[in-house]
Amino acid sequence: MNMDDVALARFLAQEAGRILMDLRAAGMHEGKALGAQGDVLANAFLMEALAQHRPDDGVLSEETADTPARLSKERVWIIDPLDGTREYGEGRADWAVHVGLSVGGKAALGAVALPGLDLVLDSAAPPALPPMAPVPRLLVSRSRPAREAVTVAQVLGGELVPMGSAGAKAMAVVRGEAEIYLHSGGQYEWDNCAPVAVAAGAGLHVSRIDGSPLVYNNADTWLPDLLICRPQWAQRVLEEVARIGN
């Protein structure tokens, strides 16, 4: 089966999502045990498929022990087999599967599956952005809203929208369910590489919260912060975040 990179990312995200939905439907596990088993099964599928279809590329997965081998690679697949393990285990829909490709440190392309919504979004053909809401909606964690996001929402007269996984939040902006996803609590590269690629493909602003670019395939995979938003809001949000930091 010969597929270009975007088609492969989409196929892998969709199939991993199907595995996860089938596992949940089987009813043999629940809660944390379901999430743990889902991580194992989805990761095994993705790692085996990438070894088969892109054997020369590097891979960074949340669920596989990292090695320095990927650091010398120009092309590195950055995957999160189950983003939002808690939401998945709770039977919710706000979880995702991330399959992204970093080329030269940039999130070049990717696909994000939202299996609970029966959706797969990719960087090559994202949906057209609908009109913005008159009041900006800011996506935040269900349990730990970022301080900067809360403050920016107050300044802009915006509305906070709690949601589960990072991928679900990013895709909510792509799908027009919110205007701003501002996260300052720290993530790892696999949490946002594929979502950033899809968001950029949709014409959204993507950056660190100081406006600098997001860089992938680092030895340290920690990414402290992230901004995905409608371009019309980017400058204002970045200015407000800088003001908070001073």
What do we call the CATH topology of the largest domain?
Fructose-1,6-Bisphosphatase, Chain A, domain 1
Whole-number tally of structural domains: 2
**Series of secondary-structure elements, N-terminal to C-terminal:** HHEEHEEEEHEHEEHEEEH
Q: Strand-residue fraction?
A: 15-25%
Mean pLDDT rating: 96
Pfam family, one: Inositol_P
Protein name: 3'(2'),5'-bisphosphate nucleotidase CysQ
InterPro entries: CysQ/Inositol_MonoPase (IPR050725), Inositol_monophosphatase-like (IPR000760)
Structure notes:
By secondary structure, the protein is an alpha/beta fold. It folds into two domains: 5-122, Fructose-1,6-Bisphosphatase, subunit A, domain 1 (Fructose-1,6-Bisphosphatase, Chain A, domain 1); 137-245, D-Maltodextrin-Binding Protein, domain 2, CATH 3.40.190. 39% of the residues lie in helices and 24% in strands. The protein has seven helices and twelve strands. It has helices spanning 5-26, 31-53, 85-89, 147-156, 166-174, 189-201, 231-245; strands spanning 58-61, 75-83, 96-103, 106-114, 119-122, 137-141, 159-163, 180-183, 187-188, 205-207, 222-223, 226-229. The chain has a five-stranded mixed beta sheet, with helices on both faces. Helix 1 runs antiparallel to helix 2, helix 4 (147-156) crosses helix 7 and helix 5 runs parallel beside helix 6. The longest helix is centred in the N-terminal third of the chain and has 23 residues, at 31-53. The chain is globular and about 50 Å long. The mean pLDDT is 96. InterPro entries: CysQ/Inositol_MonoPase, Inositol_monophosphatase-like. It comes from Novosphingobium pituita. This is 3'(2'),5'-bisphosphate nucleotidase CysQ.
